[in-house]
Specification:
It comes from Corynebacterium doosanense CAU 212 = DSM 45436. By secondary structure, this protein is mainly alpha-helical. It has 14 helices and no strands. The protein has 2 domains: 184 residues, MFS general substrate transporter like domains (Growth Hormone, Chain: A), CATH 1.20.1250; 188 residues, Growth Hormone, Chain: A, CATH 1.20.1250.20. Helices cover 84% and strands 0% of the residues.
Length: 386
Amino acid sequence: MTSRLITPTFLLSWLVNFVQYLLFYLLVTTTALYAVTEFAASEAASGLAASSFVIGATIARLFSGYVTDVLGRRPVLLGSVVVVVVACCLYFPAHSLPLFIAVRFLHGFAYAFASTAIMAVVQSAIPPERRAEGTGYFALSSTLATAVGPALGLFLVRSYSYPVLFTVTLATSVVALLLALFVRIPRAPRAESSRFTLADIAHPAVVPIGLFMLLVGLCYSGVITFLNGYADQRGLSTGAGLFFLAYAAIMLVMRFVLGRLQDSRGDNVVIGLGLVSFTVALGILAVARADWQVVLAGALTGLGYGTLMPACQAIAVRLVPPERLGTGISSMFLLMDVGLGVGPVLLGGLVSASGYGTMYALLSGVSVLSAGFYVAVHGRSAASGR
């Protein structure tokens, strides 16, 4: 008899996660421009305003798993969501650039704790034999937020104003808090409080597959950071506008297949499909001259990166004991975020020197190298069933 997957805990956790990601994407496309228009910020300062959220989240990832494991999932979840509401309130009186950057940092810091805690909650509610399937369905919450959030944020700013955007953001954060109050958290063993060590930042069992996702995240950073500039230069703005719609659409369809496939056939078949798709997508972006090619690359990126992320999250959860679930999840997020954060810094100079086509061709090669790394650190043991 198949264990039940879709439970009230799963559904409420899915909604909380969706709202948290929606908050991120509502603001991610608008904060740099807000810093320029409101504070006359330079390009560097506006970039800091945009990236301060990620900086706060990355710092929080260093110990969010440890805190979640030691204090418990419910207090960390509720406490972090309350801080998110406070941060959303503070956008209104943040009338200087340093204050605005500080608020973005605080929001990112709390967001990292909330995402770690809610992922630990939902993983404890997923039957082990349906781990990949459940993780894939859960990942759809962030996928939908990716499809809806940036466009909604830009619409609110262009059609109304930044105060209206901040009002919608605040109301959305309150919805997340109300939903979190009703999440029933399964009983789980709590880690004993002990001295904080390096293993609490990055769990040794998760580091290898996390480093694989660091390489994949570096490749994906080239997509999310430079796609608009690439499209403007090549006259492919229509294709770029449909890129993430195609990404979300293919994920919505394939999530009903790939998670079950990973549970029944193992990790390698799904990871292999994801790597091939992502590598081809990056190769298409390197040579694309038509809008349909960019849309195709978006669909393949959804089948690629959109497959690899939940598949590796399911692997990470299997690699740690139940009482270290938070640490395992935060370790994966931390390493993936490092790739996403470092990528634009490394790739910006390459774009200036050689152009977008060269950058995407190089990233396609990095994706191939990551396949070899995956085989070395996990693929062979997964194939043998160890």
